[in-house]
Design brief:
By secondary structure, the chain is mainly beta. The protein has four helices and 25 strands. This is Cupin domain-containing protein.
Length: about 325
């Protein structure tokens, strides 16, 4: 299949390599225990230490965040789509310039298509280490992260400076901005006033898909969770389907001109691509390139759930806010 074997296009959950210095809040108390992962594409990490598992991007990036209980990811926004699903744990998502416009608690398997143009943060409110998987629109993931001004100010108090280039410099390590490079400018009050204010009633019904509802909707047929015909109707440059045992068509071979990324949430799955076969376990990610013949089906009986992310011809990962 193309120039890589199937095994080379699988990122195993147990082999994910974390970066603990990926973002500006690395030293900020309450956020200093985060682990960030870039699974497909370079993502939006601000650190040269970030390991990238698969460099090729299919029109979007896939990453993950692992956090222990009570650990928070600080308020930020992106220029392109950001869609999360919870793989492990219980998480609180919150949004708004101050993080007070709305919130909801996400359980395992829940999917959140965060509207672009709003600041968002999330924290692990469970009792064990949690993991959330993220799909970011665009090959370059929108060019980076836009931080709420207070996040940048707090980081400076703990020795971290974000350059206008998007690169982090740690004064605790003796690093300083290179000559001619300025710090990242803070958003002005006028700029902040342009960001929309969205309530829970405006966000949750249109941007959240609960796992129990996803499974119930797709108990006989493959269900589109995100897409033009999906439970969440959006066209951000990719679409997301949900697969589980008992659906019609599972195991049938087909050829696609699109990139497809298989992300296992529950159970073990047998995938075959151009006559190569592998078994995918929970948390594993498999990137299948275009113009290959593939099939996917549960490998054993029991509870199963798999998210399939597919590239589309929509506008470069930019999604519409409410």
């Amino acid at each position: 299949m193309n120039t890589q074997t199937l095994q080379q296009r699988i990122v195993r959950y147990g082999e994910l390599i974390p970066c603990r210095t990926a973002f500006i809040d690395t030293h900020t108390p309450g956020s200093d225990q985060k682990e960030n992962f870039t699974i497909i594409g370079a993502g939006v990490s601000e650190s040269p230490d970030q390991h990238v598992h698969i460099h090729e991007t299919p029109g979007f990036n896939i990453g993950a965040a692992g956090q222990p209980p009570k650990c928070t990811n600080s308020l930020h926004t992106h220029r392109t789509a950001e869609v999360f699903f919870v793989h492990k744990g219980t998480w609180r998502f919150f949004w708004g310039i101050d993080g007070t416009d709305g919130e909801f608690i996400a359980k395992e398997g829940d999917l959140f298509n965060i509207p672009t143009g709003i600041f968002r943060g999330f924290e692990n409110v469970g009792e064990e280490y949690g993991m959330i998987m993220a799909v970011l629109g665009g090959d370059n993931a929108g060019g980076g992260v836009i931080w709420a001004p207070h996040v940048i100010k707090t980081a400076e108090q703990h020795g971290l400076i974000l350059a206008e280039t998007g690169r982090l410099y740690d004064s605790k390590k003796g690093e300083k901005l290179p000559n001619g490079i300025k710090p990242m400018p803070l958003l002005t009050l006028e700029e902040l006033a342009q960001f929309p204010v969205l309530s829970e009633k405006e966000v949750i019904p249109h941007y959240v898909a609960r796992y129990l509802d996803i499974k119930a909707t797709g108990n006989k047929e493959i269900v589109q969770v995100l897409g033009a015909q999906g439970m969440l109707k959006d066209r951000p440059g990719f679409e997301i389907d949900f697969l589980q045992a008992g659906q019609a068509g599972l195991g049938d071979s087909y050829t696609s001109h699109q990139h497809e990324i298989f992300m296992v949430h529950e159970g073990h799955w047998k995938i075959t691509v151009d006559n190569e076969t592998a078994i995918l376990a929970p948390g594993d990610t498999c990137a299948v390139p275009p113009n290959t013949t593939r099939s996917i089906k549960p490998n054993v009986s029991g509870v199963t759930g798999l998210f399939l992310v597919r590239s589309t011809d929509d506008d470069a990962g930019y999604t519409q806010s409410v």
